[in-house]
Amino acid sequence: MWLLAGRRQEFADAISSAGPAVLAVTVLLQVAALVARSEAWHLSIEAAGGTVERRVLYRASSMQVVGSVLNGNLGVAAPIPGYAFPGVEDERLAKGLAGLVGTLGVFALGSGAAYARGCA
Fold this sequence. Notes:
It contains five helices and no strands.
């Protein structure tokens, strides 16, 4: 939020200038990201031999998103235990690599979308 400090009017103008279609697409992309992340967690846990219902993971992921809006550290404090890079024996390294690869993947997708729109 500190990035928006002192820029209230600019932020309000940006939101009000976005059309309903842009806002709808944004919401749909957020929902798709939530489902994709939850499904990735489910597959990772299943591959590690664990069993967790999708419904439980979807709820956990949803609450993490809501919690991180309220407090940015909340999502960090409650990671999914089965989220790890496959084939790496060291658990800390496997989780770190999974986070890094996921972050780079999201960055690449966002950069590609920005480039395709001519924004980059």
